[in-house]
Amino acid sequence: MIEIATSSTTTTLVIAGDLDLAERDQFPEIAARVVGLRRQLLVIDMCRVTFMDSTGAAFLISLADSGRKRGGATVLRGADERDLFVLEVCGALELFRIDTDHRCESASQSPGTGPVQLPQRPRPS
Q1: Exposed end of the chain (fewer CB within 10 Å): N or C?
Q2: What is the count of structural domains for the chain?
């Protein structure tokens, strides 16, 4: 599940669960919404990411690259060493600022106020 929250200067993506090939169908819609918001700062909250593969990394890279082309910045918050390793192997870690001060809330707490939840598409059987 990916939620989008905005402020006057920041877009925050809160990602929960797997960020992988199985989720890729929703990536173009989310990317279009994030780019359309045109905020200078994109914060990607990865506290609740349970797994990320190269498809998920490519999605994050495309978001960071789009922001950079507009003069913005992308911050990864709550990314664990495994996620950072995937981005490093992809040669894209330098596209991101890493929030080393952030401490994730427990998974049972809500990620914040006012997010817009994107609808989940049913997976084929």
Answers
A1: C
A2: 1
